[in-house]
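Fold Annotation — chain and its backbone
Next Lines — sequence and tokenised fold

***
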Amino acid sequence: MKLRVKGNSLRLRVSPSEVTRLIEDGRIEETIYFGEKDDSKLTYSLEHSPRLLGISMEYRLHEVAVVVATEEANRWAGSEQVGIYGETGAIHRVELSVEKDFACLDRDEEENADTFPNPKQGAAC
């Protein structure tokens, strides 16, 4: 899973195997360590919940969790739909995106392992 933060927006790019794990297990996560101490880390996760409508974000100690409605996650996973989009927060609005990670057109097969086929593959410039 890839994380991109820019201003007040957060985007997760998810591989096919991660989409499968998300649907089966209800949660996927990655952790980045910023130093040698165990608490100098940030975990970012993607979860689905039957109690939620749409998309939301939760900030926990050393963790940012993006949570999507279970029904919406299932629909997205089983379709050609690229992403799930929304925003959260009344005072400090954050735009949220969860997208399928497509193969890069300028990379080789090994670098594009475990990605979704790019819909622009074979398109003429």
